[in-house]
Design goal:
Blueprint (H helix, E strand, L loop, with lengths): L20 H11 L2 H6 L3 H9 L5 E4 L15 E4 L2 H9 L4 E3 H6 L9 E7 L7 H11 L3 E12 L1 H4 L11 H10 L2 E9 L13 E8 L1
Parallel strand pairs: 1-2, 1-4, 2-3, 4-5
Antiparallel strand pairs: 5-7, 6-7
Pfam family, one: Methyltransf_12
Keywords: Methyltransferase, Transferase
Protein name: Methyltransferase family protein
Length: 211
């Protein structure tokens, strides 16, 4: 049998869900580990989000609000997992389930957002589903709004059984193209691309623009 360290595309498989209490609890547990708090391991990722200066952002797939907490105060988070949304709300963040967002005209404002962030979302679903979901949020972005996609590299991809699609730079550029977004630039964070094969927290970052 040939062994490989490359990620496997699992989009045809039945994978564990990101929708239940168990997944929300896992995110909370991982983010609250003492060593992570003591070392402030989120500091570089916090600065990475903040230096993008995205303005009022629609954080799609916000989870428990890890990135939402670093965005501008008027930003809004959306996630299909109501348990994750409750955790985000308990942290004082403005977060909504998918249904709540679309049913609330005060937050689902056409052209009301400066940017869209999809961080650690694309890898959880087949590509066609990503495009369908992202399309539904584009009307709420201003013309010229930036769209930022962040996904794990090889080692990070392997750490979560709910990851089904390895979304590298090429895949994320395809997402941008299918959505009619103008690709602007991409980078590996926080370390060079090669590090992603051994370091689980290295990320692909792709920045694009609407219109």
């Amino acid at each position: 049998m040939t062994m490989t360290n490359e990620p496997v595309d699992k989009t045809d498989a039945t994978e564990p869900s990101t929708a239940g209490t168990k997944y929300a609890d896992r995110l909370t547990r991982l983010s609250g580990q003492r060593w992570k708090q003591a070392l402030d391991v989120q500091a570089p990722y916090r600065r990475n989000i903040q230096r993008l200066t995205l303005g009022k952002t629609l954080d799609v797939g916000c989870g428990i609000g890890r990135n939402l907490a670093y965005l501008s105060k008027e930003s809004v988070g959306v996630d299909h997992n109501p348990h994750s949304i409750q955790v985000a709300r308990d942290r004082g963040l403005d977060a909504y389930t998918t249904d709540e967002f679309f049913d609330n005209p005060q937050v689902a404002v056409k052209g009301g957002y400066d940017a869209l962030l999809a961080a650690h979302l694309v890898e959880h679903m087949p590509l066609d589903q990503t495009v369908e979901i992202m399309e539904s949020y584009l009307p709420f972005l201003k013309d010229g709004a930036r769209c930022v996609f962040i996904c794990p590299q090889e080692m990070g991809y392997k750490t979560d059984d709910t990851h089904v699609l390895f979304a590298d730079f090429a895949v994320l550029q395809e997402v941008c193209g299918r959505l009619g977004l103008k690709f602007e630039y991409e980078y590996s964070f926080p370390f060079p691309r090669v590090v992603g094969k051994v370091f689980p927290y290295n990320e692909f970052v792709v920045v694009s623009r609407k219109g």
